[in-house]
Every structure is written in structure tokens, then in C-alpha cells.
Amino acid sequence: MKVLFVCCHNACRSILAEAVARRFLPASFEVASAGTDPTGSISPEIRIYLEQMNLNPDDFRSKSWEEMTRFHPDIIISVCDTLHDEPCPNWLGGGVRINWDLPNPLAVSSNPQEQKKACEETTQLLKHHIDTMIRLPLDTMTPNEIKQKLSQAALGDRV
Predict the structure, then answer these.
(1) pTM of the entire structure?
(2) Which of 29, 41, 54, 87 has the smallest C-beta neighbourhood within 10 Å, fewest atoms?
């Protein structure tokens, strides 16, 4: 099963999503992230946060989704925050499309402690979504069932 996380810049939320998914999804999953308008580098604050998670930030890179044309994801998850009118990229390939509205943890403040706390909250939200994904029998579900269950899990966090 291949999962692609997308956002505009591929420098913060989609990188966090990729990191959490790589850490917690079974090895049978292939995970990547990309952006529609990548910055070309991971946000410095996210690099620090990845190190604090005992992950090597050099294992992640901000890249265009145009590099992912051969990846052929089964599930495409946008992590933009549509509640704050952020544009949500629409992957042009096949696969189940889902949106997980994640607030930008770096937008909360320029204070490093507040950013770290926001990154931790975003990571916990992602972990909850990934745990939901792990529990689902994805191999036996239809694309519509996958979309419904993963979307419901994300919406449940907003209720």
C-alpha cells in the first residue's frame, strides 16, 4: 500500500505526516510526501523537531509532486488546513483522495517553545489518524470505504 501526503510547500505538515507514517505504519506501506509549490527545503523548525523525535531530518526533503509521477499512490492525503482557507492541492493521479485538516504548527507563534508544543499536538493528531489507518483492513476495503473511514476519523477530531 502506497501513501502520499501532499500540501503546498512540503516543508512542514506533509513532512511531519510522512515522518509519523514512516515511524508507525507497518513496513508493507510505502510512504512519501510532496508539494504543489515546494520550498525546496524543510522548515528549520521542523528539522529541529524531527531531531527531537530521534529522526534524521536528512531522510526527508521538500519536493514537487511532479517527482512522484511513478509512485502511483493508493491513498493521497492532503494535510492543508481548509478551516483557515488554505488551498488544498488535488493530486492528479489515481488513488483514494482524503483531506486531513491540520493546522500549521509554525503559524501559532514565532516562540520556539510554542512551536514545539504545536508540533507535538500536530504529531499526536497524525498518530491518531495513522492508528486508525493501521486498524482498517485496507486490502479488503473498497476505495469508497477507505475514503469514508479515514475521512470520518479526521472529522471526528473536529467535533
Answers:
(1) 0.90
(2) 54
